């Protein structure tokens, strides 16, 4: 064996190489998702369409993630993780480049649809690959590090998008990131990642492992609760901040940056705590209860600074819930050859929460003031946290 082949084998066998690749994949997906935020308003006058059309196109990402996450996860169980990650990254590069040359609404629809399908492939296969190659004893921390890339991409994406658009123009805003995404896809292709699946051959996936209906339902409730909270906070907190404190767009952006930064630091830390001490009852049940308290505190805060403190606490507590649920979900499927199915289900449930939150909020907004909607969300989280506390105790989760 040559030195070059030996180096490639060593990298392929390294869990550190896997986590670097997965972090890159998640970061780039979320960076490009955020990249579009400052640019999307330009499409309405440019294409001569109503803003509502642009809003529908923007929502296609979540719809595709919802539809394709489980099929992509199951497919990765059959054909392996690396092929799905490579295809997903190349599709993301194609979608990003298509945004750069779009001249019609049809182009935008195609680009956004492909972007969502690519995310379903890379997220499902990437998280499954991480779970498959990581020692279960440190999976919480590893997943926390990987998922913290969501916050980094969310924060940096709009910044990069705005700067590229202002200084290099419309086409370069998308073509430069497209090249970067394609390069990462080729990197995954060039460095083969060795997994048990590639050596044992394709397995038979099990969507609902026998005897695990109650644990799966508990995981589903926690994931939807967290995603649904973001689904309410993202569209309606800016409106509340502007109405209550006359907050400017820059100030509102700072508050959301606080939320993202809290998640960036809290996820690896919460994962490390879970790996070493367990405590899912405290991290999940307690995390949901404290999330409800944080939202209620934000609504009662007399100053914008105190709202930002409450939002920071909310980012920490929601992160504790997610990072604890992920290794539990992985453990349920570990003995059934279905890690791809596990993370396809995770993505689907998260998409459900993100989709349900805004719609429920819109329905309530016609009848209730915004503070009452947030207080209702706080009550729901608190009740779910109390129920989760007792259910987790009965299930005996560590």
From TrEMBL:
It comes from Methanoculleus palmolei. GO terms for cellular component: membrane. PANTHER family: GH10249P. The keyword Iron does not apply. Keywords: Membrane, Transmembrane, Transmembrane helix, Transport. This is MFS transporter. InterPro entries: MFS, MFS_dom, MFS_trans_sf, MFS_Vesicular_Transporter, Sugar_transporter_CS, Tet-R_TetA/multi-R_MdtG-like. The chain crosses the membrane at residues 18-40, 52-72, 84-108, 114-131, 143-165, 171-193, 213-233, 239-270, 282-299, 305-333, 345-366, 372-392.
